[in-house]
Amino acid sequence: QDNMGAILRQAESCMEVCPDSVIRMLEEIKENSFDSDSQRANYALLWVQAHHKCRLPLENDSLINVAVDYYTLHKDRQYAAKALLYKGLVHKQRKEVEKAAEAFALSEQWFEGVEDDQYKALLYNHFGLLMKSEENFVGALHYLKKTYHYELKGDSAYYAMLTCSSIANVYELLGGLDSAKSYFEKGLQCKDRISSSRYFIYVKDYA
Length: 207
Fold this sequence. Notes:
This protein is 76% helix and 0% strand. Mean pLDDT is 91; it is low at 196-204. The two termini are 34 Å apart. It is mostly helical. The chain has eleven helices and no strands.
């Protein structure tokens, strides 16, 4: 059990910088190797997370549901929120818009009271862009502005710059040219704060 726990902890610690290595680590684990439901849920979340970060296809939501069911049952707010986020991303990749929106909304509820600027920004970015694709521009602005807030709070200037561009584009679609100009200017301000190390840490998250 300690060995399996160590492998999963190592995989989680490597996730942000080398998700491809995480996939290789997880592929070495046999299905009957888990000693607890907790390990099985952790594995399921890491597997889906790593595949998404590497832009690999996600077949269905059966695996991520293992994580969703476990973490919601045990009321682990942070991991339940992350599992529901990735459940939404599975559906978004499969163009199942209503299911994606439902999972994102549940993820937002579980994130309440959780300090995790990076994953909140990731959630709101995908939720906002999903709404934009469905021409729900008011909803898109709501979530993209939340994305921008958490990106600034988390000192992720590169993505804050991109989000400003997305917000400006939505304002243009709504005919709000003054607001569009304002966010283009905010994006230019973010450009001066870009850290290349931050870029490489987060670049695969927004696929």
